[in-house]
Amino acid sequence: MAELSIDRRTRKDAQHNRTQILDVARQAFSSDGVEVSMDAIARQSGLGSATLYRHFPNKDALLAALLDEHYEDMLQKKTVIEAEESDAGRALERWIDALGDWMLVYDGLSEPLRAAWSRSNSPLKPTCQNVIDATDIFLRAAQGAGLAQPALSGRHIFLGALAVAWAGGTGLEDHGTRAVLRDMFKNGWGIAS
């Protein structure tokens, strides 16, 4: 019986530590961007580095856990857009805006998201794929209505939105860069004749 009690306490302590790490990382990334070191997060959480790495073996794993929370918000936005928009092109546009907001939830997030594509084992890759799959739904509807180029994929839109997020991030933002790039991304760079 005592062994069962120790096991429960150990699991409760582990859950508490995980929650503490996530709370500290969320606050640190929100205020200082994703460049905050794992050691700084361990120190700020009052836990040892070994405890942090036991829960999150690298920063991408920590970011993936935090982005899961934000992805729930994205799913809610997806539901709202689907309910409110009968125009498939406008629905795609709203989704791309939501996608850009998600990519800017932490300063510097666009770089780890981009890097996730070059590493097959990145913990961020499933999160990115979920977003791409949702983007494909909006894109296919717009393509079916003749409102989006047939050669586009959800991955293309994801990467385009990622480029806009990178260039329009807080460290690089100057006089509406994000809005200008988003409009260029939507409308192309040429002047309509």
CATH T-level fold name of the largest domain: Tetracycline Repressor, domain 2
- For the termini, the CA-CA separation is 80 Å
Low-confidence stretches: none
- The domain tally reads 2
Query: Strand pairing plus helix content: what structural class?
Result: mainly alpha
Helicity range of the residues?
over 70%
- Overall pLDDT level: 87
**Overall radius of gyration:** 20 Å
Report the CATH C-level class of the largest domain: Mainly Alpha
DNA-binding region: 37-56
GO molecular function: DNA-binding transcription factor activity; transcription cis-regulatory region binding
InterPro entries: DNA-bd_HTH_TetR-type_CS (IPR023772), Homeodomain-like_sf (IPR009057), HTH-type_TetR-like_transc_reg (IPR050109), HTH_TetR (IPR001647), TetR_SbtR-like_C (IPR049445)
Protein name: TetR/AcrR family transcriptional regulator
